[in-house]
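F.,

This is the one I mentioned.
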């Protein structure tokens, strides 16, 4: 039995690969390396450079490696880019997922774990959000993920095929053993940018909007450590292999932090102020979103190990330092 990890050279995918390697699980990565980095993949897994939408390629990988489960990370994830280039998102996230699901059905792969997002809820009327909140995506990125979740639901009804859609809240931090982390060039995430500023790689951090309906006016998000998220995938895999039915689950801690609180935490870690400017809201952004994680805890027995913003910030900073060194050696 082998797990096919699409996008396994990417940020979250590579953390799952290391966890699979630690567990002695067989896995194979399919990644087109558009944003992923080859060094992020543990040596125990093969890398096949290619596209998840390539039906022939994926069918061959499934057959050659005796794949029984697919964990599908590959896709585009930048919210403002999805607003300016929606077709990229409907191709990379929706159309490619359709192809991948089809190959699974045709080749008898019954277990599918999908990287969904809190963005499927749009701007929730109240927080925390439970999984039965209606879909209300606020940007094409969110819509592209909703469409895939809807396909999965229909396919699970029609075929011998089950899935877990994990709705990620804001993923941050890095592998405590510093084997991988957020390495995507030009990543736009708050903590990535803040760390680059802390390390002198950028001049300043811009806060996108201070006029949200939140305690300090800046955006509030539920930051989850990437290693806890990788564990959620591992638990989802056991769940599906033991006959679990199709389900969507929130992945977050149930706590919100504002942009200013994240900056203050990093300032505590580095012991100095960061250069910060305030600017207008970013297109496609919402004010506040926090997970209700009751379901994932009860159904998968998932328990976070790294639920501490300071620890998340520190691990992300340590990785950013390691990455700068790695990049300078390349
Ligand atoms: N922010 C800034 N300045 C920056 C970057 C971000 O102020 O330079 C703010 C944003 O406006 C937002 C918060 O920091 O309020 C978090 O922004 P991120 O870009 O880090 O993350 P998003 O909430 O926009 O989106 C992320 C992922 C999505 C995922 C979503 C789930 O990029 O893939 O979390 O909530 F769907």
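My design for it:
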């Amino acid at each position: 039995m082998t797990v096919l990890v699409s996008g396994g050279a990417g940020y979250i995918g590579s953390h799952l690969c290391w966890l699979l390697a630690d567990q002695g699980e067989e896995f194979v990565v399919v990644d087109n390396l558009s944003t992923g980095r080859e060094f992020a993949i543990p040596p125990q897994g093969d890398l096949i450079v290619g596209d998840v939408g390539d039906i022939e390629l994926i069918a061959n990988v499934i057959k050659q490696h005796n794949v029984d489960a697919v964990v599908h990370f590959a896709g585009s994830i930048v919210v403002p880019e999805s607003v300016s280039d929606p077709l990229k998102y409907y191709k990379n996230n929706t159309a490619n997922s359709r192809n991948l699901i089809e190959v699974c059905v045709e080749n008898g792969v019954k277990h599918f774990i999908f990287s969904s997002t809190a963005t499927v809820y749009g701007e929730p009327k109240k927080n925390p959000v439970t999984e039965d909140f209606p879909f209300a995506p606020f940007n094409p990125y969110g819509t592209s993920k909703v469409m895939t979740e809807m396909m999965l639901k229909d396919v699970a009804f029609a075929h011998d095929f089950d899935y877990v859609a994990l709705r990620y809240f804001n993923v941050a931090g890095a592998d405590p053993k510093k084997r991988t982390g957020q390495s995507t060039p030009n990543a736009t995430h708050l903590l990535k940018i803040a760390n680059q500023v802390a390390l002198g790689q950028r001049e300043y951090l811009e806060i996108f909007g201070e006029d949200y309906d939140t305690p300090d006016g800046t955006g509030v998000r539920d930051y989850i450590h990437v290693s806890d998220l990788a564990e959620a995938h591992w638990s989802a895999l056991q769940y599906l292999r033991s006959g679990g039915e199709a389900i969507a689950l929130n992945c977050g801690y149930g706590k919100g932090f504002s942009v200013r609180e994240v900056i203050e935490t990093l300032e505590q870690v580095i012991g100095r102020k960061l250069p910060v400017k305030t600017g207008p809201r970013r297109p496609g952004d919402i004010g506040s979103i926090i997970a209700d994680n009751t379901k994932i805890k009860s159904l998968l027995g998932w328990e976070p190990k790294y639920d501490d913003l300071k620890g998340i910030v520190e691990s992300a900073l340590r990785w950013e330092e390691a990455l700068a060194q790695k990049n300078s050696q390349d």
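The two ends are 35 Å apart (CA to CA).

Talk soon.
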